[in-house]
Amino acid sequence: MKSKIQFILSMIIFGTIGLVVRKIDLSSSERAILSSFIGFLFLLLIFFVIKKKLSWSLIKSNALFLILSGIALGGNWIFLYQSYDHTTIANATLGYYFAPVFVMILSPFILREPLSIKKILCIGVAIIGMVMIVGEGVRASSTDDLLGLSFGLIAAAFYAALLLLNKFIKNMVKLELTIIQLGTTTLLLMPYVFLTSGFGIFEVSSSSIPFILILGIINTGIGFWLFFSGMEGLKGQSIAMLSYVDPFVAILISAIILQEQMTCIQMLGGVLLLGSTFVSETKSIRLSKHSTKILSK
């Protein structure tokens, strides 16, 4: 029961990311580098408090995929945060949850995993759901919504790349892997932030500072800590099912707190999208038990 509570709490924390990000008046890349850096420091502290040591030999042997996964994680966060800026949290979340579909499509080519009839049907239903969500945006002629959904789908593609890359990283425990990826992402984002938005971080408004700390410490650091602690006592099936607490919380926040509107067709599309990815995972969890899924928040 303790593991289940920890995991559910981590999902609730991750589900609030969109709300927190909206309160930070920085570019998406600046928010991404801050969340990765603060989260890295927090988890590194936890790592040493529980008397663990980083395995430099494993880091060296996995260096290429760690760098590539760091790029994927950084790109994921940048586009997800941009998605929150241009559309509703519900739309951004639904676009982002198209990532498992990308993974299912690419797995036969990259991981040599067979694609069952069930998964093919789930991919088809998920695509129908996404078309319904995007189609309503087109019908409403909302350019900003369409841009936000596009950013959400790009973030989903980066997340799918992160999941696939992590399949090639060998013998690293999840918490250690997360620390290295957050640190790598921070280093890789530095030149990107400098060349694009500059370091407006040092000119951030005082009202944004509490939310930056919440994003880094709670949404990234504590969220990951609870996530990995909870995972240790749960089966892959339970992890897959409970992970849908995250989009449920995000959509509730969008509808109740922010009072963002979704049409009936978009809601039906969301049900088809989330339902199909849920069904695709209910029998067997093949892709890293969702351990790296939450790293794209």
What's the helix-strand series?
Answer: HHHHHHHHHHHHHH
Q: Which of globular, elongated, flat, extended, rod-shaped describes the shape?
A: globular
Please state the structural category: mainly alpha
**Main beta-sheet annotation:** none
Percent range of helical residues: over 70%
Which percent range describes the beta-strand content? Answer: under 5%
Description:
The chain is mainly alpha-helical. The chain has one domain (2-296). The chain has 14 helices and no strands. The longest helix has 24 residues, at 63-86. The protein starts with a helix and ends in a 16-residue tail after the last helix. Mean pLDDT is 87; it is low at 284-294.
What would the keywords be for this entry?
297 residues, mainly alpha, 14 helices
Short description:
By secondary structure, the protein is an all-alpha fold.
Secondary structure topology:
Elements: H1 2-15, H2 17-22, H3 28-49, H4 56-61, H5 63-86, H6 89-96, H7 99-110, H8 117-139, H9 143-166, H10 174-195, H11 209-231, H12 236-242, H13 245-257, H14 264-281
